[in-house]
Design a protein that fits this description.
8-stranded parallel barrel; 10 strands; globular; 14 helices; alpha/beta
Length: about 325
């Protein structure tokens, strides 16, 4: 599986659009498998990808990821089908549950049972894309049908997964999984075994299932600056329940304990995130160090290495280094 690993890029939707387009164009020119956009409180990921499809004409396009609670299944199917059509069949739909605090505060939506609701949501979206009546679920249902336009029924759907149960659900019903802030050891020890078991139980082959690992990357000789940047980013994740549970399973309970002990002191909280955690998660340093870190994820079982920018560092050297790797 590691021998077939692809390289993708997460293109930030923040900052000026000229920079966003330049990074997307560079990834396309360097032969990246895909460019992806997160659905955060910046530009809309779908609209951004539609614009980038014209400046990056070869790479695949993906959301990494869009929360299911901000669009109905019908709206999500319609948006995905439109973007796929505009890009000539290059789109894949990455979905996630999001977090209770953001879904409530941003969208006025409550997450009930994320596993059951994700299963229902994917079933409805797939049915609508295939032109079939959507099944009725406990939360999601729709009588929507495309008219005058036939979408590609096989648009791939990837799920974001952190917990064992969501990882197994992705293995059962999705075409791939998107991992965010997952150390390489967690990919090796938890994600790959759970995906393999879920695929076996569902009577499906592991071959062709895409394990996309987001890897914060900085090709730089100023390692301390990059460490400061990634600690500033990771700070908010250490306060989110889904991530905290995953970090603990990955063996970083001491980091969580130190983080909690420094409540109210943000600099101390950031310093509580250990170098060992950062080294397990990131690819930081000059090109040989970046290559070595990316290879660690390949060896762990990731099939698609999604390079992400670290706050305060130049993304272009990272894109070049990962492409060479």
């Amino acid at each position: 599986m590691s021998e077939m690993a692809k390289t993708s890029a997460l293109i930030p939707t923040t900052g000026d659009f000229a920079t966003i387009a330049r990074h997307a164009r560079l990834a396309d020119e360097l032969g990246y498998e895909s460019i992806n956009c997160s659905h955060i409180s910046a530009r809309d990921s779908f609209t951004t990808l539609a614009a980038l499809s014209t400046v990056a004409p070869r790479v695949r396009l993906g959301t990494a990821v869009a929360p299911i609670y901000h669009r109905s299944p019908a709206s999500m199917a319609q948006t995905a089908a439109t973007l796929d059509d505009l890009s000539g069949g290059r789109f894949r739909l990455g979905l996630g549950s999001g977090h209770r605090v953001t879904m409530a505060a941003w969208h006025g939506q409550e997450i009930g049972n994320p596993l059951a609701e994700m299963r229902e949501y994917v079933s409805v979206v797939r049915s609508l894309l295939a032109g079939h009546p959507a099944p009725d679920g406990a939360r999601w249902r729709s009588q929507f049908a495309f008219a005058g336009f036939s979408p590609r029924p096989g648009i791939p759907i990837y799920l974001a997964g952190l917990s064992r149960k969501m990882i197994r659900l992705a293995g059962e019903i999705a075409d791939g999984i998107v991992l965010w802030a997952c150390p390489s050891s967690y990919v090796r020890d938890v994600v790959v075994p759970e995906i393999a078991e879920a695929r076996r139980a569902a009577g499906k082959d592991l071959a062709g299932f895409d394990i996309v690992a987001a890897i914060p990357t900085a090709a730089t000789d100023d390692v301390a600056h990059a460490h400061a940047g990634i600690r500033a980013e990771l700070h908010r994740y250490f306060g989110l329940p889904f991530y905290r549970a995953m970090f603990a399973t990955a063996g970083y309970t001491p980091d969580i304990t130190a983080y909690d002990a420094a409540t109210g002191d943000e600099p101390r909280q950031m310093s509580a995130i250990s170098d060992a955690f950062i080294d397990d998660l990131c690819a930081i340093g000059e090109q040989p160090a970046v290559v070595k870190s990316l290879d660690r994820y390949r060896t762990a079982g990731a099939t698609n290495l999604m390079v992400t920018n670290i706050r305060g560092t130049d993304f272009e050297p990272a894109l070049h280094a990962a492409a060479r790797a």
